[in-house]
Amino acid sequence: MNMGGPQTQDDVAQFLSNIFRDRDIIKLPMQSILGQFIARRRVEKVKRQYMQIGGGSPIEKWTRIQGERMVNALDRRSLETGPHKYYVGFRYTKPSIRSAVEKMLGDNIDHVIAFSQYQQYSGSTTGSNFNELYRVQKQLDPCSKLRWSFIDRWGTHPKLISAFADRVEAQVKQLKDDVRRETPILFSAHSLPLNVVDRGDPYVAEVGGTVAYVVNELRRRGITNPYRLTWQSAVGPLRWLAPQTEDAIKSYGANGYKSLVMVPIAFTSDHIETLYELDIEYGETAQKAGIGQYLRAEALNDHPPFIDALATIVKEHIDADFPTSAQLLLRDPGEESEQTALTRQWIASQARPLE
Predict the structure, then answer these.
(1) Contacts of 110 (CB under 8 A, 6+ apart)
(2) Most buried of 133, 141, 156, 244, CB within 10 angstroms?
(3) Partners of 244 in the beta sheet?
(4) 183-208: per-residue pLDDT in tens?
């Protein structure tokens, strides 16, 4: 499960409309009007951005590669629960969560693991996906033929951390000898509106946890570069997390740094935030700021240790009898939507041992 991305230019308008109508991801006054207004204003700009990375998002390609290789690994490791099958369900584009559930019902599946591909939990990402899953399940499977379990966060899993460290280490080794140890590493994550953070959403803490674990692994490998966590992709009129990644790049350039290593720490697959925003847009920002060596850690994509991490996480979930995390069942201390409360109750009803 993930947000998805437009595969073609014709998909961009609907993709943006779906995002800005989703009150889980961004809550606006007069959402149906203002959300549509923001979406329409951004369509042509976003189309141009996708044209610069090949015309559309590669996220479905990478998700299917990851899914196929993950289930192949699971079939080898967990013969008693195989054969395993993966389904792709995106929140804002095709293939949708609805189409995935329809296929599961048609395939007479008994047990489904809802595996969020946002490794750090937020109500605006994983929470929004689970809310949509609840709505779809109630419509398509009211008698609960499908049994569900949930992998909702895995941002500090040792094999994920090791895979991230591999990617960072490869770029640090590309730095010039005279700046290799002092070049800052900027871990960049998708930003959140502050009103989401203020209600107690755990995303900021969980991203920080991933960064801390990756840095600890880098230190174990002898990489001692200074680092910061920054935030990208803020849109609309609301206040968002800071410092913004682009502002941080400008600041380090203005303070005499000539090299940076960028790490997309909240993304596991290449898509517009890595290929356009980090590589092209911020690459130009770095060049203008006098940063001559601007390196970006590769996304995890089909990195074999990452595929091993995915398979291991699912295998551990199976071996532990499909647990539901206590964190997922705990509401945020701030305001909570009625939909989120209903979804949490449904998830709790699924949190029992299988027959």
Answers:
(1) 146, 147
(2) 133
(3) 231
(4) 999 999 999 999 999 999 999 999 99
Q: Quick one: which of 136, 202, 151 has its CA closest to 339? A: 136
Give the pTM: 0.96
Q: How crowded is the C-beta side of 190, counted as CA atoms within 13 Å?
A: 18
Q: How confident is the model at residue 352 (pLDDT cuts 50, 70, 90)?
A: low
Mind listing the pLDDT tens digit for each residue in 115-135? 999 999 999 999 999 999 999
Residue 94 · residue 4 · CB < 8 Å: yes
Peptide bond into 95 cis (omega under 30): yes
Q: Would you tell me the crossing angle of helices 304-319 and 158-172 to the nearest 10 degrees?
A: 170
Q: How far is CA 121 from CA 20, 171, 293, in A?
A: 20, 27, 33
Place of tokens 């889980």: 24
Class of residue 188 by CB neighbours under 10 A (exposed 0-12, middle 13-18, buried 19+): buried
DSSP string, 117-175: S-SS--TTTHHHHHHHHHHHHHHH-TT--SEEEEE---TT-HHHHHHHHHHHHHHHTTS
Q: Please provide the DSSP assignment of 40-79 as one string.
A: HHHHHHHHHHHHTTTSS--HHHHHHHHHHHHHHHHHHH-G
